[in-house]
Amino acid sequence: MMYNPYSLEGKTILVTGASSGIGKATAVICANLGAKVIAVGRNEDRLSQTVTLLEGEGHSYFVCDLTSSEQIDNMIRQLPEIQGLVNNAGTSILAPIQFIKEDTFKGLLQIDTVSPIILLQKLLKKKLLKRGASVVFTSSMAAQGDVAPGNSMYVACKGAISSFVQCAALELAPKGIRVNAVCPAMIDTPLAREGVEEEQFAEFKKRYPLGTIGEPDDIGFGIAYLLSNAAKWVTGTNLIIDGGVSINY
Amino acid sequence: MEINDFIEKFAEQFDDTDPSEIKADTVFKDLDEWSSLVALSVIAMVDEEYNITIKGDEIRNSDTVEDLFNAVKTKA
Fold first, then answer.
1. Which of A14, A154, A235, B33 has the fewest other C-beta atoms within 10 Å?
2. Chain-centre distance for alpha carbon A220
């Protein structure tokens, strides 16, 4: 038998935001490592496409708008016990501070901060996450000081997640549930590319000691590690995956 | 949409540039204070004042304030 402490065999892992970017890459990696994946997102076409990419049997998907408590409840009623939760769905809105609109900010906070926390809350309440389970949030280097002008709403949302992870880890440690976050720097995803020209992307790359921005897989591998038993003594951490960009902070 | 009104609102996005420096034929990217944050402010101003969504493309493809005004106007 092959030695693989990073195996996810025997685990059912729910991944939100699984229809594109980091979530999609994570779903594929988890399946390759032997997990059964439950892919969650809003777009049925793209979700079902993600599922076709998954190796092995027993994968499924749920179309769920995570900003709706009712839709989360409805999904949870149909879920089995899970051993891994990847709270990854999120988005970003750029605006200078003087142009922040309360409704826009509340909407972003709902998607990036409130909904993932409520999903965890409901899974715990229903006892669908038990001893040995691992929860991973997708935070951001934006929560670790790698900020850019115009990104303040996103920074606030992700900063809340990175802090929440520490408290959740402490609170859930006695239950044997680990809670961590990954903090990606710029990753080549549809979200990051929105409204950005190829030449601007080339400029961004120059900031990174490793010479390039990240790929979704670079984050997916980190998430898979935190989900695996190899990370059984790791909780409350914000795992920096950033191509070295924070070295000189 | 009226160009003088647009120029005035465009100029409000600068803090250290005298509004009198900004005219229809000003090549705005040559202004010392021009930055990506000012660009973002202009995008947000157009959204707030005119309810029109523009992207970085419209800014990149415009040289003068009037170019940008015309780009915005076509989306009105």
1. B33
2. 9
What is this structure's pTM?
Answer: 0.91
**ipTM score over 0.85, yes or no:** no
CATH class of A12-241: alpha beta
- Structure tokens of A181? 């976050």
- The tokens for A161 are 């997640």
Q: Which CATH superfamily is domain B3-74 in?
A: ACP-like (1.10.1200.10)
- Averaged in consecutive runs of 10 residues, what is the pLDDT profile of chain A (249 residues)? 92 97 98 98 95 96 97 97 98 94 97 98 97 98 94 97 98 98 92 73 87 95 98 98 90
Residue type, B30: D
Cβ pair B48:A99 closer than 8 A: yes
Closest-CA distance, B30 to chain A, in angstroms, reads 18
Contact across the interface for B40 and A95, Cβ inside 8 Å: yes
Hey, is the C-beta of B55 within 8 angstroms of any chain A C-beta? Answer: yes
